[in-house]
Amino acid sequence: MLSKVMSSEPEVKHTGGCHCGAVRFEVWAPSVLKVVDCNCSICKMKQNRHIIVPSSKFKLLQGADAITTYTFNTHKAKHTFCRTCGVQSFYTPRSNPDGYGVMPHCLDPGTVSREEVAVFDGENWEAAMEVHGDNIRGRSKET
């Protein structure tokens, strides 16, 4: 079950990036991460577990020139990854084109206290959004 969007926990600055270090970013989010584990066709293959944040809470520090993008189906999701090492450390989700999906496993150690993982049935995306859409869409809104 997807937990509520609102968190009373203060946000901390997390930093992270890709494997080779070409892409670096910072993101403001609680130390307890609300992680979405999606099973849509691409997320299943990439083992894509991510948090969703508003675009104002994400800042690309370096590597804009090292990023390439893959899209498919509706072309709303922008699957960005490092063209050198191939790691996707963040992307723009179809559900939240106004925010970012950030991969917790690409965050530097020391700022995450724990992860709370919720499964999202991306294989049945439209039906899952009918059930959880307000919660998911709300994750990229300012609080």
TrEMBL record:
It comes from Lingula anatina. Coiled coil: none annotated. The lineage of its organism: Eukaryota, Metazoa, Spiralia, Lophotrochozoa, Brachiopoda. This is Centromere protein V. PROSITE patterns: CENP_V_GFA (PS51891). GO terms for molecular function: carbon-sulfur lyase activity; metal ion binding. It comes from the Eukaryota. Residues 14-126 form the CENP-V/GFA domain. The keyword Transmembrane helix does not apply. The keyword Zinc applies. Belongs to the Gfa family. Gene3D superfamilies: 2.170.150.70. Keywords: Metal-binding, Zinc. It holds the Pfam family GFA. PANTHER family: CENP-V_GFA DOMAIN-CONTAINING PROTEIN, CENTROMERE PROTEIN V.
